Amino acid sequence: MVEQGGPRIEEVLAEFLEEQRRRLRPSTFRRYEEVVELFEHCLDNYGYQFLEEDESALYEKLSREKGVEFCAVFGPEKIPDCVNEFLSYFMVRKVLCGKDLLRTSGTVMKRLAAWLAEKGYISQEDAALMAETAREAVRELPRGRDVQELLAEYVEAHPAPAGEDFIEDLFKVEKVEPGKLYLSGGGVSGREETFVVPVPPEVSARCRAGWQVTLGLVKTRRGWRISWVGTVYPL
User: Which superkingdom heads the taxonomic lineage of this protein's source (predicted)?
Assistant: First the structure.
C-alpha cells in the first residue's frame, strides 16, 4: 500500500508516458501507450494475486465499498511483481495481437524498469530482474507465437486419426529433438508421464525445453499425435 501522499501506479505510469511522449516519434509513442494501457488493465485484474494477506484484505474492502482499481490504490513498488504475469500470461493468452506488439511489450517493460529505478520508485535489484524478464520476452514471445501458428497449421493439414486414448493438458516441453517434442503432463489431467509427439522441423527448430503448451493428444497405433493446439507459453 502506498504511503500517505505517495504516488499511485496510475499516476506513475501516466508520468512515464508523458516523458516518453517528449522523446519518441508519434508512431513509436502510440505503441508505448498501447502497451502501458494493457499493462494497467492487467494490474487492475490480476495484481491482487501478489498482495500480502493484510494488503489483500484491505484492497478487497476498498474495492467492494468504493469500487477502486488496483492501480489507484497501490504504489509503483508493486509493479515488478506483476511483470512476469503480464508478459508470460496476459499478453500471450488474453491479448489478440501480432508478434510486433508482443515484442514491443517486452521493450516497453525494459524501458519502464530503467525509468522506475532512475526515479527511485523501485530498487536497482527489482529493476534488473524486471529488465531480464523483459529481455527474454522480446526474444521468446514472437518465437512462441511462431510455434503456435506452425503447430496449428500442421494439425489442420494433418488431422490426427481416431485413437484409443485422448488427453487434454497444459504440457511442459521437457526435451526437443529434430521433428519431435517430449512432453510431460499432469497439470490438469493428472497423467504424469512422458508423451513423444512428431512435429514439423520448423517447430522443433524454434521450440525450447521449459516452454508450456496447451494441447489435445490422441494415442494412435503409431503413437501419440497432436489433435488440437491451444496457447504456447514461452516464458
Answer: Bacteria
With left for phi above 0 and alpha for psi between -120 and 50, is residue 228 left, alpha or beta? beta
Domains of the chain: 9-140 (no CATH), 158-233 (2.40.50)
- For residue 7, the one-letter residue type is P
pLDDT of residue 3: 46
- The owner of cell 504440457 is 171
- DSSP per-residue codes, 128-180: HHHHHHHHHHHHHHHHHHHHHHHHHHHHHHSPPPP-SEEEEEEEEEEEEETTE
**Identity of residue 123:** S
Q: 143, 4, 31, 138: which is closest to 83 by C-alpha? A: 138
Q: What pTM was computed for the model?
A: 0.90
Question: For residue 122, what are the CA distances in angstroms to 17, 45, 66, 115, 128?
Answer: 17, 22, 28, 9, 10
CA distances from 71 to 48, 127, 224 (A): 10, 19, 46
Whether the pLDDT of residue 121 is over 50: the answer is: yes
Q: What is the pLDDT of residue 187?
A: 67
